[in-house]
Amino acid sequence: MTEDHRLLWIYVYTFQGGQFKFLRSGDLPEATFALAENDAYVYCDRPVCKGSRCKFNCKRGFTAYSWCNQHGLWKHSF
Predict the structure, then answer these.
(1) Angstrom distance (rounded) from CA 25 to CA 54
(2) Alpha-carbon distance 52 to 66, whole Å?
(3) Where are the chain's structural domains?
(4) Which fold has domain 7-77?
(5) Running along the chain, 78 residues long, what does each successive block of 10 average in pLDDT?
């Protein structure tokens, strides 16, 4: 990213709350976020439980927001 065209921040909204990551000029347009135990979502595309005593609940609806100094607010739901 350059000073003329870059992301200023990335925000991830989850079931347990949200997290901001602020980016500096020259950083890659990416960030790593820690998820809480109740934010598990990685198995939503396939069954992971066997039998009727499964306690896993698939969660959908995470949203990531970012702010670009040229294009404004970006939103991606997954």
Answers:
(1) 46
(2) 40
(3) 7-77
(4) Immunoglobulin-like (2.60.40)
(5) 90 89 93 78 64 65 91 92
